[in-house]
Every structure is written in structure tokens, then in C-alpha cells.
Amino acid sequence: MANRLAQATSPYLLQHADNPVDWWPWSEEAFEEARRRGVPVLLSIGYSSCHWCHVLAHESFEDEQTAAYMNEHFVSVKVDREERPDVDAVYMEALQAATGQGGWPMSVFMTPDGEPFYFGTYFPPEPRQGMPSFRQVLEGVHAAWTDRRDEVAEVGARIVQELAGRSLAHGGRGVPGEAELAQALLGLTRDYDERYGGFGGAPKFPPSMVVEFLLRHHARTGAEGALQMAADTCEAMARGGMYDQLGGGFARYAVDREWVVPHFEKMLYDNALLCRVYAHVWRSTGSELAKRVALETADFMVRELRTAEGGFASALDADSDDATGRHVEGAFYVWTPQQLRDVLGDEDGDRAAGVFGVTGDGTFEHGTSVLQLPGEDADPQLRARLLAAREERPRPGRDDKIVAAWNGLAIAALAEVGAYFERPDLIERATEAADLLVRLHMDFSAQGVRLVRTSKDGRAGANAGVLEDYADVAEGFLALASVSGEGTWLEFAGFLLDIVLDQFMAEGGALYDTAHDAEQLIRRPQDPTDNAAPSGWSAAAGALLSYAAHTGSEAHRAAAEGALGVVKALGPRAPRFIGWGLAVAEALLDGPREVAVVGSQSDPATGELHRAALLTRAPGAVVAVGEADGAEFPLLRGRPLLDGRPAAYVCRNFVCHAPTSDADELSRQLNG
Description:
This protein is an alpha+beta fold. It has 25 helices and 20 strands. The chain folds into four domains: 161 residues, Glutaredoxin; 332 residues, Glycosyltransferase (Alpha/alpha barrel), CATH 1.50.10.10; 60 residues, no CATH class; 78 residues, Glutaredoxin, CATH 3.40.30. The longest helix has 18 residues. The mean pLDDT is 93.
């Protein structure tokens, strides 16, 4: 019998709709029920492609006896962290403060007023390696609640008070300058893995935003070391097991220092960010490998993540059924030498094993290997035959939820990759996703535009957008405006960024992750550090700066500069965790440059200028293209044709070059 989660739009919640646990969605009604019954709340947070979330569910939430105990002694609330990042952020902060670590699945026991008093992540069904069983935890919390409730309430109140007392250093007034960015580069150099690329040791996550900073820093200063770290890291990832050597696209992270074995889930945000970064590596170096990876990753997103509504699904699971019917991690992706021979024949199979690093002992589990590409690129026909055979395997599950922020990142990536490599189909896919966000996720009212964070199957969810949604969707719209020449996308970005100014900003340039009028939690979340994707704070700074360059808005530029104060404070000390903020700071120091390409878009000469403008390495440059005095783009106003021919105008910091009709000259102006 289905529980209350049966009406959810979240695939993660729907995965628990048939549990014997009497789950509640996050709601005031759940906490009212806990008050009425006088029992604590058990908050369980995870997401659909989380391997250990599935394990915990199978071992404990599907167990009738465990579920009966939970139903008798707790009100159990299930949250998809991707739908409610604000709830996740608040209680993850409490978990990390209490235990020094965090992760998912996350279990939080709290009072009916939402005050947490006991935390954990995964608990096994039986005591193991010093961990109590999940049932022991439940019984211990119940005993404490029953016998020492005053003490429990005191712990919860103290945790909330400590969280409320935490202050965030915003960096004071001023923006990061040459000194701070040089110190950030030095810090990255110290953490750089010269042997295998990337930063730090195992596990290794794709440093997309740090690579973007390094590329921009090189473009602005000529620092060859920055470019080398960026290019070598991207090549190492592309040749390792984290990249899908057959179908394109990246797994979430590598469990080892060498990029050999991934955690196999594939997230939209990772692939959108990496698709764009590899295109920018190609733009800086001309690397054919970077070009191939950018295009294959774009094609992966369109082929495997695009939904019927035109948006992009959130993730593919790490797990699927293997040949014996077991549901295990990586089964869809790994190979043995014999499996290669079965598909390709003995000679080609052995050759493929050498090309892809498939060994008799295996590089993963049970004698299987993750495909790598340590040497030259594989024969395309060989890859195609293996990919066709792999398509016959049981596929990993897909989280079809549309997340506004992540679709914004995908729109930016597909628009730029489509423009760079003359793939108008990718620009069309970006436009269709943008249309979906406007149609389904943007709510227009007299108070302005408000974003809904998620949708599924054409139905908008109930959760309000957070700062990263407004910022990343604006970023996507701005990129699409520059590529398409459609000024409507600039206008839509302005609507969203006005809400950022009105609802998310505090004094001194600080930003909150939730709107002023959002649901009040035990703490208002606020985090400027980049994690798997740009923080809402960094993303907002970047979008505000780009919009200001497009429009000349002093309010938006001042807001961007205020937000970058935190980069001045954190960049030199923790550059790996504020890469996008550093990239935005590079754009600010470079201007950013403003490029107006005036002429009919049907004229090939306009197209040449437009392409040269889009391919500039100048950090954060904005591009407008269209007819002279085009009303949709402020940059086009007052900019006539040059002797009747299409022309390009380049300005920065209130100084402009002479207009030119020569694409090569434009490239020299932009990249000199």
C-alpha cells in the first residue's frame, strides 16, 4: 500500500512510496503530527542516484519490523536533497558541526520544532565495523526521548543556538585584485597533482570551476603554468575511467588518485560544467581531444538525459543489473577481456583490451575493468560496436526530475558548444530547454518573476527556487542570448537577476541561498563556497556582472562587486573551493569586455564576426549580435555599420577600440 509520497514529483521520494514506513514529505503537517503524538521526527535525506541511499532503503526501510518500529515511535520525513537544497544545507551543516563529517544518506533526529539532537549517515542493519545498527540507533534515540527528554531538548536548543551564532566573513569592502588571484594560483599549484592531474588525493572530483579560473587567468595574464594545469587535468580525466569512453559523459568522481575507477552515477550538473570547460580548453589550446570530449558530452546529455518536454533529467544511477541479475554498481559500464572477445572476436577483442586497459585481473570488482584510454584514440568503429553491444545491457535508472539550476548550466554549455563547433542542433536543444524553463518554471506576477525549482513529466513541483536556480538559469539565458542573437533571453535574465537583488541580497554584498520570504528554517542557509557546482553566491556574482556588461546597469555591477568581497577573503586561503568566484573575479579584472556585432544575422560577414567574438578567450566577455540600433540589446544602440558592412565594436572599462569589419582583426583586439 502506497504511503504519502505517492503523489510526489521527486523520483527519489517515489522510490520510497511503497515502503512500509509511514513517510511524510517535508511539511508543517508532519511536525504538527509529531507535536500531537509527542514523538521526535526522523528526517531522512538522500537523492535518487545515491548508491548508499538505495542500500539503506533496501536493508531498513523495506524491512517490516524496522518500519513498524519507526511508525510507532517517530514521525518519519523523507526529503530529496535536490528538491530541497535549503533543508539539506541547514541540517548538513549541523551534522558536520556535530560529527566532523557528512554525506548521504543523512539521518537527523529532531524535536517537533525542528531542533536536531542526533545525527548520522548510513547505518547498517547489523552492528558492523564499530557502527551501531540502524535498529540500535532507533532504540537508543527512543530511550533518550522517553527517559531524558529535557536533556534532549536542551541539546537541540544548544545546536540551533550555535548554528545561529555562526557568522560568515564577507571579506569587507573591495574586490579581489591581482594579489589575491596570484595567491589563489599559488595555492592551487601547491595542491596540484603533477603526476596524475587534478588537485589533492583520492577521491578526486572534477575541478570544473577551478579549471575555468585557470583558463581565464592564463588568458588575462599569459601564465603558462595555469594553462598547463588546466589542460593536463582535463586530459587525465578524459583518458581515465571517470569519462565514458564509449558513450561520452562523465561519472560523478574517481575513487582513486589516478582517475581509474569512478563512482558511476552521472549527474547533469557535472556534465554541463565539463562540457563547457572542455570547449573552453579547446578554445585556448586547439586540443582535438578536448573538442571530441566536449561534443561527445553534449551528445550524451541530449541522447540520455533529455526528456520528452525538452528539458534535461537530473541523473543516471550508478547501479544496474549485471549478467546474473544482481543490482550492482557499475554493471552497465565495466568489461572483462572475454566480454570484449564475445562482441568483437578474438583478434579485435584483444586489441580493444589493450586500447582500453582491460586486464585479466580487472581494475574494478570481480575481475571487471573500467574502460580507459591511456594511449591514442580508439578506432571509432571499434567504439561503435562496443557501444551497440552495451546498449543491450539493462540500463541504469534515470532521475527524470528537471532542476532549474542544472538546466541553466546545460543551456549555457549546449549553446556555446553548438556555436563553437557549428552544431545548430545543440543550440536548438538549448533553446528548447530554455523555453521549458520559461513556460513551466517561471511564475510571472505583479511582484515579479519567481522560479519553481523542479518539475517532472510537465508538472511543476511545489518547491521554490533557491539562489542557484535564479543565478544559473540567468547564466544560461545570457549565454543563449549571446549565441542566438535573441534579446528576449537577455530580458528574461534581467527579470531573474532583479529578484536576486530584491530577495536574496543582504547588506555588504552578502547573499543568502533562500529568498527573504522563503520558508523559515532553523537557520537561513548561506554558503559562498563552490562544491559540485557553482554556489548560488558565485553564480549570482557572475550572472550579475555579465548582465551589467550587457546593459550598463550600475546596480547590477555594484551587486556583483559586493558579492565578490567573499572571494577576496577566501580565494587566497581556499582556492579549490571557490573556483567559480575566482573565475568571475578574472572577468571583473578584464572588464569584462563588451562586444557588439552589428549586421544582419543572415549575412555571412556578420556570422564571421560573431563567431570570432564568441571564440574570444577574454574572461567573461559578453557578445551582442543583431541589426544596428537593435532594441533588444543595449550594446547595439548607436553602433552603425562600417561603410555599409557588418562591424564589430569592442569596449572595456569605458575605452573602445576602433570598429572593424575584419574577423581576424577582431580576434587580435579580443585576444591581444
